[in-house]
Specification:
elongated; 19% strand; 297 residues; five-stranded mixed beta sheet; 10 strands
């Protein structure tokens, strides 16, 4: 047996009446007569088999059944109103979901996002963070910004910028470090990439060193540990310039090593829509100068 159609006019009449607790004000809002509102409410009550309002000399009050129905309709009609506002103000927003390494987000992306939103007000950017472990399909991502060499299976990757690594530590600890070999006596804070410290020591003229120390899955947390005096972090110093400028942390040696970079990645099977193209063009242009050196691959 076919289900009777949902009485949208009656539900709207009830929703407006429930908000105002007045048939008169609901009728004025909906540009109909009070009698029409009353008729719609009675029809809805007959359909549901319950009373939705108590009528008295003091006005209207919702019954328990009316109180149960009203919040859902407030939310539903409110969502419809907001959707129409988007269309009427120039078109529906196009959702773009981007996941990015937290260090990159905090260190440089956040301060640039205002320019993207100003240039593309119709793009509804959803920004998530990751620790470089991303499932583009499972997380429903349009893009992921991650750190590495750009070689991810099934992924189209474009280099955003390089990010040279250099030791960072608290000022008190920095006073004990006069040459790179002094680091071998200090607690070395490590990321999930064991090759980073080895590459830096090699660039500093030290080979075959043994690197030990606490392991972190986020450069943000690792550098915070360094600020607290827990040891020396090896991190992309350009992304922690605020902390360096404020004196929270020190770059004790000028030696740096550029191993990998930050990449904008998407599934090769994922076609680019207008919002994706807008974000990609803006991002690569924003980083064409400044942090690191962007080049093709």
């Amino acid at each position: 047996m076919a289900r009777a159609p949902i009485p949208l006019n009656a539900l709207k009449a009830f929703e407006a009446s429930a908000r105002h607790l007045s048939f008169t004000r609901a009728a004025h809002e909906l540009c109909v007569t009070q009698a029409a509102i009353s008729h719609q409410i009675k029809a809805l009550e007959a359909r549901l088999g319950v009373d939705l309002f108590r009528r008295s000399n003091r006005g209207l009050k919702l019954t328990d059944e009316g109180l149960a129905l009203a919040p859902t309709l407030f939310e539903a009609f409110g969502a419809i109103d907001r959707l129409f506002e988007r269309f009427e103000s120039g078109g529906a927003l196009e959702v773009l979901t981007v996941s990015a390494v937290g260090t990159f987000v905090v260190g440089t992306l956040l301060e640039r996002l205002a320019s993207f939103r100003a240039a593309h007000p119709r793009v509804d950017l959803r920004l998530l963070t990751n620790n470089n472990k991303v499932d583009l399909v499972g997380e429903g991502l349009d893009y992921a910004i991650r750190f590495g060499d750009g070689a991810w299976h099934g992924v189209e990757a474009e280099l955003i910028c390089t990010a040279p690594l250099s030791p960072l530590c608290a000022p008190v600890l920095a006073k004990t470090l006069r040459e790179p070999s002094d680091l071998l006596r200090a607690p070395l804070l490590r990321s999930y990439r064991p090759q980073d410290w080895l590459a830096w020591f090699e660039a500093a003229g030290l080979a075959d060193v043994a690197v030990r120390g606490p392991l972190f899955d986020s450069s943000l947390i690792m550098v915070q540990a360094a600020i607290q005096g827990e040891g020396v972090a090896l991190a992309p110093h350009a992304l922690f310039q605020r902390e360096i400028d404020s004196g929270q942390i020190v770059q004790p040696f000028a030696v740096e090593v550029a191993i990998d970079g930050y990449w904008l990645t998407r599934l090769k099977s994922r076609p680019q829509n207008a919002a994706m193209r807008a974000f990609r063009d803006w991002l690569l242009d924003a980083f064409s100068t400044g942090l690191g050196i962007r080049n093709g691959r």
